[in-house]
Design goal:
Belongs to the TonB-dependent receptor family. With 988 residues, the protein is mostly beta strands. It is built from 15 helices and 45 strands.
Length: 988
Amino acid sequence: MSLALTAAIAPSAAAQQAEPEQPRATSTLDAVSVTGSRIKRAQVEGAQPVVTISAQQIQQEGFATVYDVLNSMNQQGSVEADTQWGSHTPNASPINLRDLGPGRTLLLVNGHRVADYPLPYGGESNFSNYSNIPSAAVERIDILTGGASAIYGSDAVAGVVNVILKRDYQGDQVRLRGGTATEGGRDSFDVSWAGGRTGENWSLTYALQATRRDPLSGRDRPEMDDSDDMAYSNWTGQNRRYGFNPFTGLSLVDANTNERIAPPAGTCARFGGEFIDGQRLSYNQNTGVVTNAGDYCGVARDYGDWGLVTGSEDYSAYLYGTWKFGEHTEAWATLSANRSIGRWTYDPPYVYLGPFQDVDTGRSLYAIRQLTRREAGGWDRLANYNKEQSWDLSAGLRGVWADRFDWELSVGRSRYTVDEYVRTVDTARATDYFLGSPTGTAADGTPIYAINQARLYAPLSSSEYDELVAKSHNSAYSWVNQASFSLSGDLVQGWAGPIRFATVAEVAKQGYQLSPDPCANECYPVDVVDSGGERMRSSAGLELQIPLLSTLSANVAGRYDRYGSYRSSAAIPTDVGTQSDTTWSAGLEWRPVESLLVRSTLATSFRAPDMHYVLGEPSSTNQTVIDQYRCIATGAYLTGGCNDENSNIYYTVDVNRRGTPDLRSETGRSFTGGVVWDIVQGLSLSVDYYRIELEEMIKDLDRDEILSAEAGCRTGTTISGGAWNNPGGAGYCDTITSRVLRNADGTIASIERGPINLAQMETSGIDASLKYRLATAGWGNFQLSLDYNNLLAYREQIYRTDSDENRRDERVRSRVRGSVHWDNGGAWDWTVYFRRLGSMRAVNWGTCERFDDGYQQCLGRMRGHRHRQRASGREQQALRRPRRPGDLLEPQHRLQDHRPRQGQLLRQQRVQRSGLREQGALLRLRLLQHHLVQPDRPRSGGGICVYVLIEGAGRIARHGTAPWRAMHRRCHLRRQAVPDPGLPMRAW
């Protein structure tokens, strides 16, 4: 159950009965700036669809953070968020509009860019973090979906998220909120203070916020702490045959035969339930033979100490001030700052020892030793953590020139710093502790050790744990300095009305730096590389709004962006040229009647190569791979010998990665078209079609892709025995084979990864929105909001020769979100928020398809093995249920430990079940100070109102939840006091 106690103090007028919503197409407003255009306009709706989320809506629907509400939108796709195991950015929260990638969505705060998150998304590219924006300071959030580079420049490919913070605010609000998950864990607490003051020619708005959220680990959810908890459709042929081999906790292995040397009897039981007796089984799908490679100590709960959700502490501050000079000029300045501490875990620290020669037997061995939570003394002593700081300072002047042109000059600087502390085992210390000093050196150079079995097979004390575990410190920062000047207004009087324009000129300089621990990859394995650099950007844009008829207007825009002056922080300079791109957009707005808008926009977009793609310095890690070329060349694939038991095929190699200086910009084109109809007073409907196409998409070739292509280029055959289809001709094979360096004996020396311009993508769909407001005399006021998205097509081609079949069924096909709000101007009001995600096809949809290796996945369950028995009864149920996110991902192998890597598969489905959509109730107590007036003495009255707010959530369908909200209000007012209609209601 989710319980919370909330208190708030805020100024406001007494509650007023809600006014019916005016028809949007005929709204009479002062000209204001709307996201998607720099031309001020009176109409709320324009040629491009913009979704607006107000602070009131965020509050009514029960969201606590900016990221939470954005993540609930129908336009949001899947991301590697802080809640995903194996994330390279565990304390960051990116947004992925239309599933086109986080780097293709532009984040603006008050219309200005902010610094990128310093660590690259997925270890590859730059992106924006949405979890460091203080929700207490938010006035509204605008989401523009579709290409907008002609207005905003690079990165506005999938769309723009513009977070508008409060300004010109009067009064104060204090809010307390706490809660917990219904199944335990994930306690949360939030306190915020937002307010402001205004004078005759000045204003000051401020906000402070502190938030704490406890982490959630696999142990907090017993059904998610082990490999066999994953959907059966993710199980490999080996898993279906005998279950899962437990992750290695303690193992001594013959490096030549991969045979496990059994630990002394009772060893696994000495670790207090952390380890269990395990057997290393493998299944030859061609012969049907199950091989036992020996006994070892397996981890009892593979994912027990992995984090389902990162814990965090966040502290934010915001200031915005203005000062008027005369009648037409105003100065402004704003400062926002955030400090965050994120706590997270993957595996507990482990060490790989060897290979070495055993002094007693002369065998070449290696050992794997996993440290445990029990040895550490608790989760806190296992946890890694990030310390992050960001700040954004901007200032400017704005005014009116010649009574017809609005102008603004602004400058700003933004900086983001991350310090990452990762617990890992110091290899040298661990070698000394478990193996002792070397007694000599073998003929091949391998050190000779006499294993200290008393230490290797015994639990560590807390002090011994501290001796072996080091805390790696990696740091990173990013920054951007920028200045802009804009001018807008009525240019000339046209034949159908005034022709309006807006022009902008911008210059910016941005940079980043990754600084790993000086001892990384020497004392302990940490995959971080020293990298960084900076570049300049200059831009100019023009936008026109041209009335063609009294009911028809055109919007055209063009922009030129130039990226250059690259400078790498490396000792060896990186020669990078200059990228320049010109983009345009054209839109039409037709209003045949006042209540109907027909609109469409065609736009081009681009995304300049990320600095980390271009300037990334060489990095190297040791990874265990299957040599697919040798598998085919030696004929091992014919006998099922291409697996991790064949040391001639499965071995450790160097995998190197670096940036590509000659990358080109990604380019795109988007089209949107739809209608907005104010049907009757208070009822409006909008329906929009969208289509986005991307070309020259940058893809970072991974090791398995390179190895598969190299084998195909050299042999014309796949590892499964089929014919290999060359996707790019001789030039492609030359590129691929040059990325695999081999030794004289034919084994792989290294694999060279890196980004290239290669892929293309297309997505299309329909967005629909229904809004209804109804005020009744006796039943109160009702508000209905319903949003719908249907994905019509999703196509992605990594290579030009790849099939461009529609893959929409591999993704969520439809999404619905909505809310219903009721109040009667009295003590109570209610809000019900609901969301539903559509179905996805299972990997075995419609048939029992065979795997590439010939294995048919409808194999019946076999008995007789204890790990296999844990999966009893799952097969038929799993074959019928819809696929969850992650079902299509391929198994990956953990570096050097020879454990089946199902974590990435398991993690993504667990996120959906980890308590993020907990059910329960939320109780808040709110105390508000109302500004009231007496008829004869304005602002002399006053009053106190106490609110009790109850919220909760219930499941309405397999993929949907319905939060609800009710509020009771009781006020004590001074005699003769009446509401001041000039003060807006700002109660939270």
